[in-house]
C-alpha cells in the first residue's frame, strides 16, 4: 500500500496540467508577525481533479509515546485513516468535530483501528485517557495542501494557473473551523504571498 | 526711643506683675509643668494615633492577604469542580454536539455541587448556556481561558454587580468552550470578608464607572477625588498604602486592594476601611487615662508648686512684713525654721532689726538723756515739765521745779581736771537720782541739775527735799580718790503760780537759784516775785547799756599815775563813766557785771579802747594811757585787731598804750591768753597786771608772762603805813617786780605817809586821791601842766 501511495503521488506530479501549472510559495505568519509553523495551506482550484487525491504521507495517525504522530495529518476526503497504537498503554481516541465524530474505545498496542473520513474539514483528535494528546486530521478536497515548515513556508507545485482560493488552517486561528480563506490568482509564473493571521 | 522700652517694661510688669512672689513662683512652676505635661500628652496622642494607624494598616493588610488566600483556595476548589465537568467525556461530547438540554442540566448540577451562584458554559461560538443575569451572560460571551495575569480567575464589573469569574476550558482536545463560575462579590460576600478580620472593618467592593470614578457596588457613591486618586494609585502600585479618607462612615483608614480583571487595568477593587473613631476607640481609655493622668499631674503640680512657692515665699513674705514693721518703727521677730539660706536670712534680719532698734533706742536716749550722767537732758526735762504743767491745773495739782547748781564746780575742773569734774557730775547725778524717788532728775548742762516734783505734792515736799539734798552734799564727796568738798545751791519755783509754762517756771527757778548763790551758796531759795523784779531791772539795765553805747552816753575819765622816779605824770588810767539821762551816774560796779554777763563788754571795751587812744594821742609823748580789759574781751578772738585798729586810727604809738589785765584772764586757760599777750607785746603795747595780791594770785603768772608793770592792790596800800605785814607784802611785791624787771604801781594812795612809805620801798609809781581824783578828758592836759612835783 505504501508503494501504491507513492505511485499515486508521482502520478500527481506528472499530470498533464503540469505545463500550465505554477508553483505557489506561501508564507504564513502568526498574529505576532512571526513565522507560523504547522499551519495547513490549501489552494482550492475551480477544476476538481479527476484522479483520486493521494498524499505522500499516507493516512496513518499513530499513537506513539502518549502522543499522536503526526500532529497534523492531511488526508484526502474519503480516506480511511488508521490509528495504530504503538504505546504499551491503551488509548481512547475520539473526535467531536463536525467533520467527523468518532469514538475509538480503549484499545491496546498493535490493535489498529481505522475510521473513514468522508467529510472535508478539520477533525480535532483527543484521547479521553490522556488530556495532553492532541492531533488534527485535515480532510481536504484539493491535492494542493501542505503544512508550513518551521519557517512558516509552504511550497506547492503544480497549481493550475488561474483563480483559486487560498485557505489556511491553524488551531489558533479564531475563525470558523479555524480556517482563513482568501481568493487568489495563480499566475503561470508562480504565486507568492504572505498571509498574516489575525487573532489573539 | 525710650517710650517703647518703658511701654514694654510696663507691659511686662503687667503680664508678670504679680504682687506676690508666691503667685509668681506658683504660676511659673505650674506653667512649666503644664507645658511639659501638655507636650507629653500631645506626643502620646500622636504616638497612639500612629500606633492605631499602624495596627489598622497591619490588620487591613492582613485581612486583604487573608482574603486573597481564601480566594485562591476557593478558586482552586472551584477550578477543580469546573475542570471535572469540563473534562468529562460525556459533557464534552454534549458540548461538542451542542446538546443544549444536557449541558444545561450539567451546569445546573455543577452549580449546585460547587455551591456557586452562577455557572455557565460558553462555547467557542459565544453561546452561553446557564441561568444568570443577562448582563453577566453578555459579559462572559467572550472570555479568554486565561487572564492577563495568567490565572484562570478574574473580577469583572457589570451593571448587575461585581463578579469573580472562574474559567475552566472545555478541551476536546482543542478548546470548544468554557465552564464559567461567576461568584457575585455582593454584600453577603463582603460581610463574610468582614467576619474574617479580627477588627470590625468594613469591606466595600468598588468598581470603576465609565467616567473613571470609583463607586461602590451597592451604588452608594463614595466617589470623591481623594478616593479616586487613592484607588487609582493603588491599582498602579502593588504596595499596600493606607490612606485616611472621608467615607460615609466618617473619617476612616482605608486600604484598597485592586482585583485583577480581564484586562491589565482592574475593573474592581476591594476597599477595606476602618473608621478612625473606631480605630481610636480602643485607645480611648488610654487617651482618657493619659488625659486624666495629665490632669491629676497638673493638679499635683499646682498644689506642689503652691506648696513650694509657699515654702519659699512665706518666709520672704514674713521677712517683707517684718521689714515693713521695722520701717514703721515697731519690731517683728521672725521665726527661724530650718537652717537654709532663708533661715539664715531670718536670723540675720532678727539680729539686724534688733541692732537697729537698739541703736534707735540709744539715739532716742541720747536725744533725751545726758550722755555723761545718763539722766534726762534739758529737752526731756522741758517736755516733762510741760506735761506736768498741763496736767497740774486740771487735777488741782502742783509742779515744783528745783534748779540745782554745784558750788565751786569750776574750781574742781580747774584744779583736778575735767575727768574728775565729769566723775563728780556722774556721782552727783547718781546721788540725786537716789534721793529723788518721787520726781524726775535731769541734768540741764554743766553743773546744773534740775528736779521736777509733780502730782499730789505735799506742800512742804520741795523744801524738805531741798534741805535733804543740801545736807547730803554738805559732806565731801569721794571722787577718784579725791575728797571733794562741794555744796549745792537750789532755786525752787512752783507752778503754775511761779510760771504758767515750762520756760517761765524754769526762769523763776533760775532766778531763785541765782538768789541762793548770791545769798552765799549752799542754801535753797524759793522764787519770789521780787527776784523777778530784780531780773527785770537787770534786763532794763542791759537795754540801757545798749542804748548808751549807741547814743554815746559813755565817757572816759582819767586818773593820773605819778612816776615817782621822774616826778611827773607818766600815765593816765582810763576809767569808764556812764551818765544816764534818768539814772544819772551809774557806777561801773553796777553796770560792768551786767555788761560782762550780756557780752556788751566787748563792744563797750572796743569803744573805750578807741576813745582812750584817740584822746591820749593829744597828750605829751611821755604820757601813756592805761586801759582796763575784761577777761571777756580777751576771749574775743578779734581783740588784738581792735587794739591795732585803735592805735592806727588814733596814731598813738603802741608803747604809750598800757593794757591792764587781772589775774582772772588766766582762769579761762593760759595758752590763748599768753598768745594774745605776746601778740600785743610784739606790737609794742605794754601789759600791766592789775589788782595784784588779790584773787588767786599765783606767782606762776608772773613767770608765765613778762609783764611790764604790776599794780599793787589798794587793800595793801591802805595799811602800808600802819601795818607792818602790809608793808612787808608791798616790799616783797616791789622786790619781786624789780627782780623780774617789772615796774610797780601802788593803787589807792590817799595820804602822805603812804606815799613816803611806798617811795621808800622803791615803788615805781603811785596812783590815788592823794595825788589826784580822776578827771575829765578835757582836764588831762591842764593836770599835766600843773607843777605836780611839789605835791610829790
From TrEMBL, chain A:
Top-level taxon in the UniProt lineage: Bacteria
Cross-referenced Gene3D superfamilies: Cupredoxins - blue copper proteins
Keyword Signal set for record: yes
InterPro entries: Cupredoxin, MauL
Coiled-coil stretches noted in the UniProt entry, renumbered to this chain: none
Signal peptide: 1-21
Keyword Transferase: no
Keywords of the record: Signal
Protein's name in the database: Methylamine utilization protein
Organism listed in the record: Sphingomonas aliaeris
UniProtKB/TrEMBL annotation, chain B:
HAMP domain boundaries: 310-361
GGDEF domain ranges (all copies): 397-529
EAL domain location: 538-788
Keyword Ribosomal protein: no
Pfam families (UniProt xref): dCache_3, EAL, GGDEF, HAMP
GO biological processes: signal transduction
Record-linked InterPro entries: Biofilm_reg_signaling, dCache_3, EAL_dom, EAL_sf, GGDEF_dom, HAMP_dom, Nucleotide_cyclase, Rev_trsase/Diguanyl_cyclase
GO CC annotation terms, alphabetical: membrane
PROSITE patterns in UniProt: EAL, GGDEF, HAMP
Transmembrane segments: 21-48
Record-given protein name: EAL domain-containing protein
Organism: Sphingomonas aliaeris
